[in-house]
Amino acid sequence: MQNFFEVNAKGDPFRLFSGEHLITISIIVVLCVLMFVFRKQLQEQRKKQILRFSLVFLLYGTYALSHLWLLFGKNTWSLKTHLPLHLSDLAVILAPLMLLTNSEKLFQFMYYAGLASSIQAILTPDLGQYTFPHIRYIGFFVLHGGVALACLFMLVSTTYRPNHRSIWVTVLIINLYAACVFFINKWLGSNYLYIMKKPGNDSPLDYLGPWPWYLLSMEFLMIVSFYLLYSPFWLKRKTELP
């Protein structure tokens, strides 16, 4: 239990695509595949409701526990670093709302913004010194894996399907959101969305050029990722045309 909650984790820091990381990614992928394998069962009202509320409880419960650890365990919670203003953190807040309201508009946004940001977080997590089995490691992947599962749950349990128009609506919303976050960053001296500077540790942003040009690279990669997420539905519609 000490290794699970300790503030200053001992041992090797998190390593990208280490054995633990690859196993964690594999578990999330298997759960996503099972969502499609059992899609017919998930369309049954009782099973749908059980999984819906389980995901809501998992996401909000894990999110609350993570912040309680930062506040009381590590004693490092601050407005400058721990507000849910990063896109992947915002997705954690919105995913349960999507599940509870069954909103198609929220699904259209979350399928692109939530799923893309969660995949990016899962593949390139910013975990610093924390690795398995620490609460920071487990909570991080439960949250972002949970967002991916929530988006796929909406896909398999409803008739909602992402459309092309929603790509550009989502891009517009994210850019307007980033403009608001910019002023919050200026006010707090923070770096939410990494729009003020690159993160201090090694990250994929290191390969996207200096500030502010990497912001344009981020924009381009975001749009590409949205089109990749839309491509299976575009191909399906093309093959169904007479």
Outline the structure in words.
This protein is an all-alpha fold and 242 residues long. The model has no long low-confidence stretch (mean pLDDT 89). It has ten helices and no strands. The longest helix is centred in the first third of the chain and has 29 residues, at 45-73. Helix 7 runs antiparallel to helix 8, helix 7 packs across helix 10 (213-240) and helix 9 (164-188) runs antiparallel to helix 10. The protein has helices spanning 2-5, 19-37, 39-42, 45-73, 79-82, 87-101, 104-123, 135-157, 164-188, 213-240.
Keywords:
single chain; mainly alpha
Topology diagram in text:
Layout: H1 2-5, H2 19-37, H3 39-42, H4 45-73, H5 79-82, H6 87-101, H7 104-123, H8 135-157, H9 164-188, H10 213-240
